[in-house]
Design a protein that fits this description.
Layout: H1 4-13, E1 18-21, E2 30-31, H2 32-40, E3 52-55
Antiparallel strand pairs: 1-2, 1-3
Helix pairs in contact: 1-2
């Protein structure tokens, strides 16, 4: 299980403009800057597994 700090560091290192994250929200594109603000406001227990992916503006995961 990742901590908030782990998740923020990983997403900050991303070069993608959009990411998708969360147990129920994977596939919903979020601007990276907005995701960082949102995650920074969470508690560690809200992070869950810390799943996230780089994606395009449509929410398609970049592989």
């Amino acid at each position: 299980m990742k901590t908030k700090k782990d998740l923020l560091e990983e997403i900050k290192a991303s070069r993608s403009d959009f990411v998708t994250y969360g147990d129920g929200d994977l596939g919903i594109p979020i601007r990276r800057e907005d995701a960082l603000r949102d995650i920074a406001s969470m508690d560690d227990d809200q992070i869950g597994d810390g799943d996230w992916e780089e994606c395009d503006p449509r929410g398609e995961i970049n592989r």
